[in-house]
Design brief:
The complex is a heterodimer of chains A (114) and B (109). Chain A is an all-beta fold and 114 residues long. Helices cover 0% and strands 53% of the residues of chain A. Chain A has strands at 4-7, 10-13, 19-25, 32-38, 45-51, 57-58, 67-73, 76-81, 90-97, 103-105, 109-113. Chain A starts with a strand and ends with a strand. In chain B, strand 4 (32-37) and strand 5 form a beta hairpin. The N and C termini of chain B lie far apart (40 Å). The chains are: A mainly beta (114), B mainly beta (109).
Chain lengths: 114, 109
């Protein structure tokens, strides 16, 4: 089946620094990728939808200058958390759409900002 | 607005059967998904229903009634490893996934 690789799985960074999370589709071309954030004991919250070669579409309340998304190729999307703060600590998950009905998730990235 | 409701938490006994319900109100409907998510891990796909009726897959079954905006996930012969959160998600008319808050299932010996 379709596989989405997400790295890193865990990252600890200092407040004020930036962190990049990568999401790769390994055996299919993902024209659309989704980035989610999940706080403890809560459901997935869609942050943004990225389409290859165009600007990402951000959900209401998500700062696009803080969460930079780049989808430069059909197999790679990146999320950069800029000037991270402790409140950005969360579980970030990417998802790629292989077909209209096929969604595959990455393994997630646990970000801790200290 | 769009809304998906499912119970916050359920408890069941090992070896028993449990049914997790999901009701939805969305702008359009292109199918309903159930995902399993263990703590600290990403969701994994369980089932997809787009037509009314019951889909059976091993110990797990999923049911859909589009007229009632209702689905359930049925887990049989519960095992301790089934302790997880179960997420209901509906694909709307724009093919976007709308997520429920998830149901935490606790299995007791």
């Amino acid at each position: 089946g379709a596989v989405v690789s997400q790295h890193p799985s865990r990252v600890i960074c200092k407040s004020g620094t930036s962190v990049k999370i990568e999401c790769r589709s390994l055996d299919f071309q993902a024209t659309t990728m989704f980035w989610y954030r999940q706080f403890p004991k809560q459901s997935l919250m869609l942050m943004a939808t990225s389409n290859e070669g165009s600007k990402a579409t951000y959900e209401q309340g998500v700062e696009k200058d803080k969460f930079l998304i780049n989808h430069a190729s059909l197999t790679l999307s990146t999320l950069t958390v800029t000037s991270a703060h402790p409140e950005d600590s969360s579980f970030y998950i990417c998802s790629a759409r292989e077909t209209d009905y096929g969604y595959t998730f990455g393994s997630g990235t646990r970000l801790t900002v200290v | 607005g769009q809304n998906i409701d499912q119970p916050t938490e359920m408890t069941a006994t090992e070896g028993a059967i449990v049914q997790i319900n999901c009701t939805y109100q969305t702008s359009g409907f292109n199918g309903l998904f159930w995902y399993q998510q263990h703590a600290g891990e990403a969701p994994t796909f369980l089932s997809y229903n787009v037509l009314d009726g019951l889909e059976e897959k091993g110990r797990f079954s999923s049911f859909l009634s589009r007229s009632k905006g209702y689905s359930y996930l049925l887990l049989k012969e519960l095992q301790m490893k089934d302790s997880a959160s179960y997420l209901c998600a509906v694909m709307d008319s724009n093919y976007q996934l709308i997520w429920g808050a998830g149901t935490k299932l606790i299995i007791k010996p």
